[in-house]
Write a structure and sequence with these properties.
By secondary structure, the chain is of the alpha+beta class. The protein is built from 8 helices and 19 strands. It holds the Pfam family FecR.
Length: about 325
């Protein structure tokens, strides 16, 4: 971590927080991504506040509001400059940062950021290289502004549509797997200690557990952190969750419940009595949004209301 100091500082200012402070001076700043970053760690609000103050000290051009006297610790937002000032503002900040921390340190600052979705939400992220990632509800992916040809799946389900470039392959880290595209569309699903990759177009090289496998359309691989297992999947089902169809292969009801929670936006849990029970098949989400009790007959369980969610349990 790169630290900056000044009289009255209460802690270090790091490159990641400075990067966000600089981004938020842009009139077209992504406030949703900024909010997701803040919520990822309670300490980030304080780090961001110190970064804004540091930028103000270096440029004398960004007004910073005084911290509120109450216990409300919402971060200080650097007000976006008028569009006409944007060019010289960015240049001034860059020049100040180079002078303060050195060109090498600033150019090597952490430019990674996380894109996240709430349960029940879907979001498509367009990448600078022409690729895109569609995230299911309750999912997170880590991206890098300095390397647009890479991504790290942190949680949930997502579909990658990759623009192929043989000279610079797109790489994805998902659990213990490393994926390298060969010009492709592929789906990554995580949960229950497993990572599953399925290819609908092109091909993917999958590395993990000391092995390397090529996946072609209709092929999938599942990793539990110890071994890789090949599977077949109907190409039409891959990424089907975007249209409200979840397909499971050798999943436990714990995994099914977690996936339903992410995609429906309603808490679903499996009781210990049925949590390890296997399930293979497809589930349509639209009917469940109207009446989650339909899960009972479909899964052969009893489903009961539990606070604001639902619990799957053994029939009485």
């Amino acid at each position: 971590m790169t630290a900056f100091g000044g009289e009255g500082d209460t802690g270090p200012v790091d490159g990641e927080a400075l990067d966000w402070a600089l981004r938020m001076t842009d009139p077209e700043a992504d406030w949703e991504a900024f909010t997701a970053w803040l919520e990822g760690d309670p300490a980030r609000a304080g780090r961001y506040d110190r970064a804004v103050v540091e930028l103000e000290r270096m440029t004398r051009a960004i007004p910073v509001a005084a911290p509120p006297a109450s216990e409300d610790r919402r971060p200080l937002a650097a007000p976006p400059p008028p569009r006409s000032r944007r060019g010289w503002m960015s240049a001034a900040i860059a020049a100040a940062l180079v002078g303060s921390v050195g060109l090498g340190v600033w150019s090597q600052r952490d430019q990674s950021y996380t894109v996240a979705t709430r349960p029940g939400e879907q979001r498509t992220v367009e990448l600078a290289d022409g690729s895109s990632i569609t995230l299911a509800g309750g999912s997170r992916v880590r991206l890098d502004g300095a390397d647009p040809r890479s991504a790290a799946v942190e949680a949930g389900d997502m579909l990658f549509t990759v623009r192929h470039d043989a000279a610079m392959p797109f790489r994805v880290r998902a659990g213990d797997l490393t994926l390298v595209d060969l010009g492709t569309v592929f789906d990554v699903r995580t949960g229950g200690g497993r990572t599953r990759v399925a290819v609908s177009e092109g091909a993917v090289m999958v590395g993990g557990g000391g092995r390397s496998l090529r996946l072609d359309p209709g092929q999938a691989v599942v990793s539990d952190g110890r071994a890789l297992r090949r599977e077949r999947q109907d190409v039409a089902e891959i990424g089907g969750w975007r249209e409200g169809l979840l397909t499971f292969s050798d999943a436990t009801l714990d995994e099914v419940a977690a996936a339903l929670s992410r995609h429906l936006g309603v808490a679903v849990a499996a009781a210990p009595a049925v949590g390890t029970r296997p399930f293979n098949g497809s589930i349509e989400l639209a009917p469940l949004r109207r009446d989650p009790r339909l899960l009972g007959e479909l899964l052969g369980v009893e489903i009961r209301r539990d606070g604001g969610g639902w619990t799957l349990d053994a029939p009485r």
